[in-house]
Amino acid sequence: MSEFDPGEGPSIVSITDRVKPLALGVAVSSVHFLGDRACFVGAEETIAIATGEGEVTQTPVHGGAILCSVSDGKRLVTGGDDGKLVALDAKGETSTIATDARRRWIDNVALHGDGAVAWSAGKTAFVRSAKGEDKSFEVPSTVGGLAFAPKGLRLAIAHYGGVTLWFPNMAANPEFLEWAGSHLAVTFSPDNRFLVTAMHEPAMHGWRLADNRHMRMSGYPGRVRSMSWSAGGKGLATSGADTVIVWPFASKDGPMGKEPAMLAPLPARVSVVACHPKNDIMAAGYGDGTVLMIRLEDGAEILVRRNGGAAVSALAWNAKGTLLAFGAEDGDAGLLEM
C-alpha cells in the first residue's frame, strides 16, 4: 500500500470505505457533536453543521476569526477576535452570551456541567453562573487556558508561571500552583485528583491536588496541542510526538515514576487525539492526514483515513460513542458510523 506505510509488522485493518466524506471548503479548527450532528468549527466566521446523511449547513457565528470552542453536547460555545462569546444550540440557533467591553479577543472558553460558562480576554477570566451572575478575576499574565473542576464550581486558570485555582462563589483566596514557564491548555482528571497543563515548551506538567506534588511529563519532540482522557480517566492521551503518548493515571500517584505508553507510531507527528467516551479505544489524527482508531489495551490499529492530505486538525466522538468525526486543515472532513 503505497499511500500508507504502517512501518514494520503486518498491515492493519482498513475501514476507510465506511467513512462518509464531507467537503467543507474551509479550514477546520475543531469539531464537536450536538446530539448526532457534527459541528465543524472553522478558523473564520462559520460553523459547518453536518447530519449523518452528509448534508452540510454553514452557520455564521463571528465577524472574524474563531479563537476557541467548547461543547457539553447541548450547546457549543465559541469565542472570537470580534470580542464576542457565542452559543450554538442543538436546533442550530445562535445567541450572543457576552461581548467584551473593550472588544478584546475571547481566546479561551470552558463549560461546567451545571450550565456555568467561563471565558478569558487578556489577563482576565470571567465566569457566568447558571443563574446568570457574572464574576471576574485577573491573573498576573495572559490567560493560556481554562478548565472547570468536575466537582464544585472551581476554575483552573493557566498562565505564565503556573495555574490559579479560583472559587468564584467563595471569598477565599485563590490557590496558586507554581511551575516555571508558560502554561496553555489545562485539564482536570475526571476523578478530580489531578491537574495537568500543556506548556508552551514541548512538555506537560501536572499536580496531584491532594498535596500539590509535581508531576513532570517531558520528552516530547513538539508542543502538546491536544489532550484527551480515556473512559474512566485511567489514562491521558496526548499529541506532540510521532506516537500517541498515553500517561497512566489509574494509581494514587498518577504518572509519577511511571513510563507512558507509546502507541500507533507513524513517520508523522500526532496532531490531535480523542478518546472514546465509553470504551478503551481512541482516535488519533496525524500531520500527514492519517486517522487511526487505536485500542488502548494492546495498541491494535484500524485505518480510518489514509495519509496524503493536509494535517488532521479536529476529532470528536458523539456522546454515545457511535459516531466519529474528523476534519483537516484544508477543509476535508468525514463521518464514521460505528
Please give a structural write-up.
It is a single chain. It is built from no helices and 30 strands. Strands 3-4-5-6-7-8-9 form a 7-stranded antiparallel sheet, with no helix packed on it. With 338 residues, the protein is mainly β. The protein is globular and about 55 Å long.
Output the number of helix runs.
Answer: 0
Q: Describe the biggest sheet?
A: 7 strands, antiparallel
Question: How many β strands by DSSP?
Answer: 30
The N- to C-terminal Cα distance equals 24 Å
Radius of gyration: 19 Å
Helix content: under 10%
Strand order of the largest sheet: 3-4-5-6-7-8-9
Structural class: mainly beta
Order of helices and strands: EEEEEEEEEEEEEEEEEEEEEEEEEEEEEE
On the 0 to 100 scale, the average pLDDT is 94
Overall 3D shape: globular
Q: Stretches where pLDDT falls below 50 for ≥5 residues?
A: 1-10
Beta-sheet strand percentage? over 45%
Layout: helices, strands, pairs:
Blueprint: E1 13-14, E2 19-23, E3 28-34, E4 37-42, E5 44-50, E6 56-71, E7 75-80, E8 84-89, E9 94-99, E10 108-111, E11 117-121, E12 124-128, E13 134-138, E14 145-148, E15 155-166, E16 175-188, E17 194-199, E18 204-208, E19 213-217, E20 227-229, E21 235-238, E22 244-248, E23 261-263, E24 270-275, E25 281-286, E26 291-295, E27 301-305, E28 312-317, E29 323-328, E30 332-337
What features would you highlight for this structure?
single chain, 338 residues, mainly beta, seven-stranded antiparallel sheet, six-stranded antiparallel sheet, 30 strands, 54% strand, globular, disordered N terminus
